[in-house]
Amino acid sequence: MKAVIIDDERFAISLLSKMIVDNFPEISELKTTNHPLEGIDLINTFKPEILFIDIEMPHMNGFELLSQLENAESINVIFTTAYNQYAIKAIRFSALDYLLKPIQLSELKEAISRHILQKNERVNRLDRYHNLLYNLKGENQNRKRIAIHSSDGNSFVEISEIIYLQGDNNYTYIFTQKKKYALAKTLKEFEEILSEDGFFRSHKSIIVNLSEIKSIDADQIILKNDLRVAVSRRRKQELELALLYR
C-alpha cells in the first residue's frame, strides 16, 4: 500500500511518518512533501492509495489541492488539522475522514482500518469529495447536503429536506420528505453535526428539524405533515426557547 503526506510543517510530517513506519507495515511506500504544489505532481505520478493532507497551508489549502487532482476517485483522503471547526464540520457532512492534531495512534489505526474496509468504494468516494467541495462553497447555507451512506450506496440529501431522525441503538433512521434512510451510526453523531443547523434533540431517540414543527403537545411534537414524535419533559422548555429564538 502506498501513502503520501502533505503538510507545510516539517515537524508534523516527521511525527506522522514515524507513526506510520513504526506501526503499519502494510504501508510499504511512503512519500512526503511540505509544498502543496509539489504535492499535486507527486500524487499524480506516485498514485498513492492513502493521502494524509493538512487543511491549512500557505498558497493552497487541502481542499483546493483535492479539487485539482487527476485521480481523486482512487485515493482515500484523510484530512489532518489542528483547529478549523468549520472545515471539520464540512468533512463530517460528507462522511469523510479527518485526524485532529496532535494525532493519536489509536485514531490513526481506526482511520487506516476504515480505509482497508472501503478499498472498493472509489466512485462513492469521489461523490463524497464533490459534496465536500459543494458545501465548502457556502453559497447557500440552507442548501448544505449531508452524505448518507447505506447499503444502497451514497445519497446526498439537503439538510432542509430532513424532517426528523430517530435513533435505535447503533442505528439512525433519517426521515425526509421523500424517503427513509437507515444508517449504521448513532444519533449522537448526527446531533453533533446538525445542532447548529436548525435541529434539536427533543428526546433520547429523536432529533427534529425545527422548521418542520407545527406545534407542541404535552409530550409530543406535532410536525407539519401531522406526524407526532416524542419530546421529553426535561427538554420541552429548551425546545420552546429554541423555536422562539431561531
Please give the CATH architecture of the largest domain: 3-Layer(aba) Sandwich
Distance between the termini: 49 Å
Which class of secondary structure composition applies to the elements?
A: alpha/beta
Ranges where pLDDT stays below 50 over 5 or more residues in a row are: none
CATH level 3 topology of the largest domain: Rossmann fold
**Residue fraction in strands:** 25-35%
Task: Briefly summarize what is shown.
The chain has helices at 10-23, 36-46, 62-67, 85-93, 105-117, 122-137, 187-194, 233-245; strands spanning 2-6, 29-33, 50-54, 76-81, 97-100, 145-150, 153-158, 162-168, 171-176, 180-183, 199-203, 206-209, 213-216, 220-223, 228-230.
Topology, element by element:
Elements: E1 2-6, H1 10-23, E2 29-33, H2 36-46, E3 50-54, H3 62-67, E4 76-81, H4 85-93, E5 97-100, H5 105-117, H6 122-137, E6 145-150, E7 153-158, E8 162-168, E9 171-176, E10 180-183, H7 187-194, E11 199-203, E12 206-209, E13 213-216, E14 220-223, E15 228-230, H8 233-245
Parallel strand pairs: 1-2, 1-3, 3-4, 4-5
Antiparallel strand pairs: 6-7, 8-9, 8-12, 9-10, 11-12, 13-14, 14-15
Helix pairs in contact: 4-6
Structure description:
The chain is of the alpha/beta class. It has two domains: 2-135, Rossmann fold, CATH 3.40.50.2300; 165-245, LytTr DNA-binding domain (OB fold (Dihydrolipoamide Acetyltransferase, E2P)). It has helices at 10-23, 36-46, 62-67, 85-93, 105-117, 122-137, 187-194, 233-245, and strands spanning 2-6, 29-33, 50-54, 76-81, 97-100, 145-150, 153-158, 162-168, 171-176, 180-183, 199-203, 206-209, 213-216, 220-223, 228-230. It has a five-stranded parallel sheet, with helices on both faces. Helix 4 (85-93) crosses helix 6 (122-137). The mean pLDDT is 90.
